[in-house]
Amino acid sequence: MKYECHGHTISDGVSYKDSMARHKNGIDEQFIRHNLKLCAQHGISFYRDGGDKLMVSAAAKRLAGEYEIDYRSPIYIIHKSGYYGQMYGRAFDDLKAFARLVKEAKSLGADFIKITVSGMLDFNNNGRISGPSMSYGELCEMVNISSGEGFSVMAHVNGSDNIKNALSAGVKSIEHGYWPDRDVIDYFLQTGAVWVPTCAPVHNLIGAGRFPDGVLKSVLEAQRQVLVEAYKRGVPIAAGSDCGAFMVPHGKGTEDEYRILSEMGIEPERGNRTIEEIFKVV
Ligand SMILES: [Zn+2]
Fold it and tell me: For the whole prediction, is pTM greater than 0.90?
C-alpha cells in the first residue's frame, strides 16, 4: 500500500500545455480514469491532489472510489495575483477576495486549502526562488480565514525564511520546502506540521538536459541534508512525488519518490506515523 501525498492528476508528466488543452472542451474523464487506474496498479490507496484550475482534481475525487483510492483535493491552488500559482490556481488581490475563494473551494468540496507562499526554483539561475508572495501578517490572516472555515492549509513553499513563516503562521503541511536550513526542524517539531519534500521532480530532471545537472544535484543535496536530520528528530515526512510534473509520471512517480526517500534512509509512513498525521491535520 502506498500513499501519494502530492500529485496533480490534471498533468501528464510530459507537457503542461497539452495537459491543460486536454480539458478545454470539458473534462476528459477517460484521461482521469487512466491516471486513477495507474495509481491503483501501483498500489496507491491514498492520493492528495495539489489542485488545478479546471476542476479536474474535483472530478478525480468523484471517480476515485471506483478505484478504491481515498482522494483528497483543495480543488484549486489559491495564489496572490502576479505571484506563482497561476499554473494550477486562482488569484486573489486582497484578503476579502481570498476569503471568497476559500468559501468557493468549500462549496466545491475541498478537503483543505492550498496556497503558494513563494515561487518555484529557477534551475537556470542556481535554483533561486522568487517570493515571498505576501507579508507574514497577511499569511497569518490567510491561515486564520481558512481555519475559520474548518480547513487546514497546505502550502507550496521554498526557502528557509518562507518555510519558517509558513509554519509560524499555522500552515499544516510544507510542500517542497527546498532550500531549508537546519533551524526549520525546530519549527516543524514545535508545530507538528508535515513535510512533503517532493524530491522526484528535481531528481528525475538530472540527466534530462533541460537544466544544469550541477544545480539540480546541489538543490537535492541541500534538501537531503536537512531532511535526513528532520526525519531522525521526528518530523513527519510524507511521500508526495508531484506526479504530473515534467518527467514524473503517475504511478511510477510515486514509486520514484519512495525509492529516493528510502535511499536517504527515510521510510515515510513507518518511522513517523506520517499518514495518520496527514489524515489528522490536512
Ligand atoms: Zn505540485
Answer: yes
Cell 533561486 locates to: 128
C-alpha 8 – ligand 1 centre gap (Å): 6
How many angstroms separate the alpha carbon of residue 135 from the centre of ligand 1? 22
Q: Give the distance (Å) from ligand 1 centre to CA of residue 6.
A: 6
pLDDT digits (tens, 9 = 90+) for 166-181: 999 999 999 999 999 9
- In angstroms, what is the span from residue 230 Cα to ligand 1's centroid? 21
Residues 102, 151 contacting (CB under 8 angstroms): yes
Centre of ligand 1 to C-alpha 132, Å, is 17
Per-residue pLDDT tens digits for 54-99: 999 999 999 999 999 999 999 999 999 998 888 889 999 999 999 9
Domains of the chain, CATH where assigned? 2-281 (3.20.20.140)
Cα of 89 vs centre of ligand 1, distance in Å, is: 11
Report how far ligand 1's centroid is from the alpha carbon of 7 (Å): 6
Q: Which of 75, 34, 36 lies closest to 54 in space, CA to CA?
A: 75
Q: What are phi and psi of 80, to 5 degrees?
A: -75, 135
Query: Cα(242) to centroid of ligand 1, in Å?
Result: 5
3-state secondary structure of 155: strand
Three cell numbers written together for 262: 528510502
How far are the Cα atoms of 7, 150, 184, 248 from residue 277, in angstroms, in the given order? Answer: 18, 17, 18, 25
Contact 219, 276 (CB under 8 A): no
